[in-house]
């Protein structure tokens, strides 16, 4: 009886070995190390709550064969606008970038960074991924794209009072999140400057700017709730003021140099599903960021839907200018913008 049981156990073990994917037969030692370069500090939600778990999932799915190492705060050198070139050149293997930091270089990827082109982060991220598949294949030629996404709609965080109407913006010096939103804010009467979010603390603490336009999610990472006392957000039924767009990129040679099964792991952890997942997480980050602003005791106000509708009309020249710019890049600008709005309004 014992011999029969032993024989069955051996056969069962052999069958399990035959059924186990090749990845599971690997020794738990990294065959590939991928350097992921991030502009944000380590505690930022994108690093601590997305990149770290994502790297763990890649490691587990590859049975330890792929080790993704995170380098926050631009530890590999350079400045945030250089990240697309760093990943292309192999200075890093994966990067997370903002197309607006290199204006006009990735035009389709920038389109959803226009004013009032955001609902929430999850839906808008799905829209962006679809738009890139339909129109933006040439934006990142020669680079392996892993995901595209946006954050939730931006809010106005100011030092000295709430914003209810365009009159409240007149004369204020605001850090604009991108060129298109900066033009819109200028049409509304504000004076704008543009610099990466990593320089925000200096701008606010030195008094160079009176406020900024950002989503809640980034506020705690830079303790901006301590530097601003007021937040003004569009009414819930309105589109957000803006959303910056993001691209998660991988060095093409690093991807192609991996074995078929390891490329399969990367493929299974990227694409449309990952874009939606990041967007969903940014909606969660937004809730937590707002909680930090409330805990600070800051005043939060609402910009009425009627006022936002008036702002959207004022911003129409910004959209018209973008259509012409897309036309100049060989796209049908009106078709791209119409498709983006169709996707945003669907459902």
TrEMBL record:
Protein's organism: Yoonia maritima
Gene3D superfamilies assigned to the protein according to its UniProt record, in alphabetical order: Bacterial extracellular solute-binding protein, family 7
Alphabetical keyword list: Periplasm, Signal
PANTHER family per the UniProt record, alphabetical: BLL6794 PROTEIN (PTHR33376:SF15), PTHR33376
Lineage summary: Bacteria, Pseudomonadati, Pseudomonadota, Alphaproteobacteria, Rhodobacterales
Record's GO cellular component terms: periplasmic space
Main subcellular localisation: periplasm
GO biological processes: transmembrane transport
Listed InterPro entries: DctP_fam (IPR018389), TAT_signal (IPR006311), TRAP_DctP_sf (IPR038404)
Signal peptide: 1-29
Compartment(s): Periplasm
CDD domains: PBP2_TRAP_Dctp3_4 (cd13665)
Protein name: TRAP-type C4-dicarboxylate transport system substrate-binding protein
């Amino acid at each position: 009886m014992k011999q029969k049981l032993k024989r069955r156990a051996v056969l069962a073990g052999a069958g399990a070995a035959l059924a186990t994917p090749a990845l599971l037969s690997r020794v738990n030692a990294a065959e590939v190390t991928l350097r992921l370069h991030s502009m944000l500090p380590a505690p930022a939600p994108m690093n601590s709550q997305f990149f770290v778990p994502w790297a763990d999932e890649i490691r587990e799915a590859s049975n330890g064969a792929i080790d993704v190492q995170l380098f926050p705060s631009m530890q590999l050198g350079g400045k945030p606008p250089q990240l697309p070139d760093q990943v292309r050149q192999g200075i890093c293997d994966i990067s997370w970038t903002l197309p607006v930091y290199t204006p006009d270089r990735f035009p389709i990827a920038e389109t959803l960074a226009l004013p009032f082109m955001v609902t929430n982060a999850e839906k808008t991220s799905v829209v962006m991924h679809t738009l890139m598949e339909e129109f933006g294949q040439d934006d990142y030629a020669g680079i392996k794209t892993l995901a595209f996404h946006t954050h939730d709609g931006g809010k106005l965080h100011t030092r000295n009072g709430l914003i209810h109407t365009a009159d409240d913006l007149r004369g204020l010096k605001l850090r604009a999140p991108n060129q298109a939103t900066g033009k819109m804010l200028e049409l509304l009467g504000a004076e704008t400057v543009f610099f990466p979010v990593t320089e925000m603390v200096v701008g606010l603490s030195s008094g160079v700017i009176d406020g900024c336009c950002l989503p809640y999610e980034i506020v705690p990472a830079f303790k901006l709730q301590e530097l601003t006392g007021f937040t003004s957000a569009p009414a819930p039924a309105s589109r957000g003021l803006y959303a910056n767009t993001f691209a998660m990129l991988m060095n093409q040679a690093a991807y192609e140099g991996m074995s078929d099964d390891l490329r399969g792991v990367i493929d299974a952890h990227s694409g449309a599903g990952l874009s939606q997942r990041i967007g969903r997480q940014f909606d969660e980050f937004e809730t937590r960021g707002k909680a930090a602003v409330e805990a600070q005791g800051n005043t939060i106000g609402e910009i009425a839907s009627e006022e936002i509708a008036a702002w959207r009309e004022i911003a129409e020249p910004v959209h018209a200018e973008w259509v012409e710019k897309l036309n100049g890049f060989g796209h049908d600008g009106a078709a791209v913008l119409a498709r983006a709005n169709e996707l945003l309004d669907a459902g």
